Amino acid sequence: MGVAHGRHLQKCSALHRGLSDRPDPADPFSHGHHAVRVTPSTCSEPELITDLTAVTATALAARLAAGDLTSEALVTACFAAIKAQGDDAIFIILTEETALAAARESDARRKAGQLLSHWDGIPVAWKDLVDIPGTPTTAASAVYEHATPPARGAVIYENCTKAGLICIGKTNLSEFAYSGLGLNPHFGNPVNPHSGDDPLAPGGSSAGSAVAVAASLVPLAIGTDTAGSVRVPASFCGITGFKSSQRHYDRTGIFPLSESLDSVGSFAHSVEDIVTFDAILRGQTPQEIPTGSTKKPDLVVPTNVVMDGLEPEVAACFSHALEKLENAGYAITRRAFPIFDDVVALFAKHGTLTVAEAATLHKDLLAGPDADKMDQRVRERIGTATQFSAQDYIQLQWARARLERAVAADLGQDILVFPTVAITAPSIAALEADNDYFIQTNLLALRNTMLGNYLGMPGVSIPAGHAKNGTPIGVLFSMANSDDLKLLNHCHTIERSLVD
Q: Would you tell me which of 283, 337, 362, 494 could form a disulfide with 302, CB atoms 3.0–4.6 Å apart?
């Protein structure tokens, strides 16, 4: 089926050529080894120079439509970039042969005027929780590394296939999606592309998907988010990440962590890309994004919980982002948001739904001989649910329904705004060396984002700046449950205000 594990890549296609290892000072999109150029060839298809560095799917689709780029050349460039990157921990599975075949089919449809969508031929990476025919769904666990491939793909995958999008491969994650830092002792740790000499954590659990987009290996990637698993890595890696409301997408065919909290999310270089991607994932035809007529929403900055203990550079970057938004005409209110205090108190008293549901899901695995194959930290964290009672679970679910209604009543059409993560990306070596530090850092990384999962809120993390060492910092925008489309449309405009 053209499948190769990320650590055992297939030999590069004959179309692979023209890697650029150094930035071109005359090219504003060339930032070093992530730049991939496909030079003109003698074949009849138009294949002008392309540079994948931070190029949006929207821009690539325009080039495909203009006829100066083929899907085959684009997909080839993606695999060339993956090989040049040299980080075998980003992907668990690469589908090079099937991707190139799909690209040729897309090019043939384009010639015949039979496109499946205007994004026909655009490549996508998928978190390895999503069922894709011909590939095992490993959940980044040694337990399922050789699982039987599913006969059918997940609904969101099939919707993308019907639109002509092309699967590049399946990305690495924290085992069973159970960490906000992105480390994986079996398949390796994807390295944050913004690392210096000390490799930094990418954030998790959707680590490979975030790194694949941030390193410009693909323009789009799918993740999932149960407590922050899209928004945290989006912030750490300096890209745009969207976490949907839980019922916004059909989750059939996606390996679960917590049925009550799991949601699908996506990574891209712009909100515009995510708006189009969102429609395709839902099986809809993308529409024009409203411009000009939409009234600016009021922004609410909570002064409690999410602003506690921020790293100084995160606080400074967030303050600067608010200044930009105020200068762009947004009304900003800074006030307490008591619902956050209620959630913190509930978690302290009853625990979290994630622990209870993950322990139930993996009960047989934890009690069986394959438990030793699990990441020890994941096994221990799931094991803490032995003290979880049915009464705790019911109290959390009852309170959740009440607080979701309270959020809608409090916010109306306003948007909550606060730092996506209280910290910048930590050192991988430090996390691996000290288990207590790992636990504390994981909790702090997820503290702000997990509130949105419990309260059913869609969220978009948008890059807002960098710390002095170059690590990115994101700002999170969230609305009440099911206001996904409103939030995306607003964030499309907000994003422009945050660009320097």
A: 337
